[in-house]
Amino acid sequence: MLRSLSSCLALIALWAVPLAAADRETLIQDYKKVLEKFSARSSYIGQGNPKTTHHPLTTEQCLDKAKKAGVTFENPQFEKICGAPYMAPLYNPTKEKPEDAKVCIDQFEFPNVPCEYPVVWTRAVEAADICTSIGKRMCDAHEWEGACAGSLEEPDYAFDTFKDASAENKIRQRRLAHNRVADKNAVYSYGKERKKGICGMNSIKDDGCNGGDWKRCGSNTYPVGSFTDCKSALEVFDLHGNAAEHMNLPTKVEEMASKGSKDLGYTEMKGSWFIWDKYQAHADHCRWRAPYWHGTRVRHPDSHANYHLSFRCCKDVK
């Protein structure tokens, strides 16, 4: 359960101040406090089973790699627009500027701190509540897709189609229609063709991992931002590889997080995870929508969690 309103407001304040005040260590300690509030729901939420997980890169190596490459992740312009560190404005570059954005997205998977490991084993409902607890919200599917493809487009959920179908069939039919278009113009965050070695996709799946076992499946992720070329034109990182991500898939306008919904729609898995250079289990181009795997309402108490599934948050501005 969430703590008092004053505690939540204090945590929000920490995440909203400029990076000069909220330095790396402050942000790390802050997200750990946030996770503490959710430990009663799940003893798994975190960065993987420490007895099984073997990260291919340390946080120190990630920081050193960025330093040697002359890469800095801080962006004062973005921070001014978004009102929070490490967020990127979402907009359509053909007709808008960053300052025109009405929404921002985390540049990295939660905890959204460069060179920290992504938080996994998070249920969709927990992801939504964590985002809310820090003054943000869960992203809608089209927002993640726009962040990846380098242009935020108008929502295309086709709410007027298949109205009489069950939720699962409605999602399946709309997904098929969406993907028929998206598959013809596949684009990745880093370019028009899928390439190996660009993103965090060359880690391992442990022997004996049967698809979702805490004891046998290591969350063998990279620190976020380890691959500085794995970013979109809107400066959003790790949209392919590392960890897949929870997003909200609405079946009607009233379920759109971007329209202020608190009830939300259904679970949608975005991106791919850390073994994709070795084994590509499904498509992962920017506007691809996944099958109804482990599908539930986002706010279902038993919504899906696993060792390679994380999330990132959005934030409305202006």
Q: Any overview of this molecule?
A:
- It contains 7 helices and 7 strands, in the order H-H-H-H-E-E-H-E-H-H-E-E-E-E.
- It is of the alpha+beta class.
- It has helices at 5-16, 24-36, 59-68, 76-82, 124-133, 141-149, 167-182, and strands spanning 87-90, 103-106, 137-138, 244-249, 266-270, 309-311, 313-316.
- It has a 4-stranded antiparallel beta sheet, sandwiched between helices.
Order of SSEs: HHHHEEHEHHEEEE
Radius of gyration: 18 Å
What is the distance, rounded to the nearest whole angstrom, between the alpha carbons of the first and last residues?
Answer: 30 Å
How confident is the prediction overall: mean pLDDT? 92
Largest sheet at a glance?
A: 4 strands, antiparallel
Number of helices in the DSSP assignment: 7
Order of strands, main sheet, comes to: 1-2-7-3
Based on secondary structure, the structural category is: alpha+beta
Beta strand count: 7
Tell me, what's the shape? Answer: globular
Low-confidence stretches: 1-21
How much β-strand is present in the residues? 5-15%
**What share of residues is helical?**
10-25%
Give the gist of this structure.
With 318 residues, this protein is an alpha+beta fold. The chain has helices spanning 5-16, 24-36, 59-68, 76-82, 124-133, 141-149, 167-182; strands at 87-90, 103-106, 137-138, 244-249, 266-270, 309-311, 313-316.
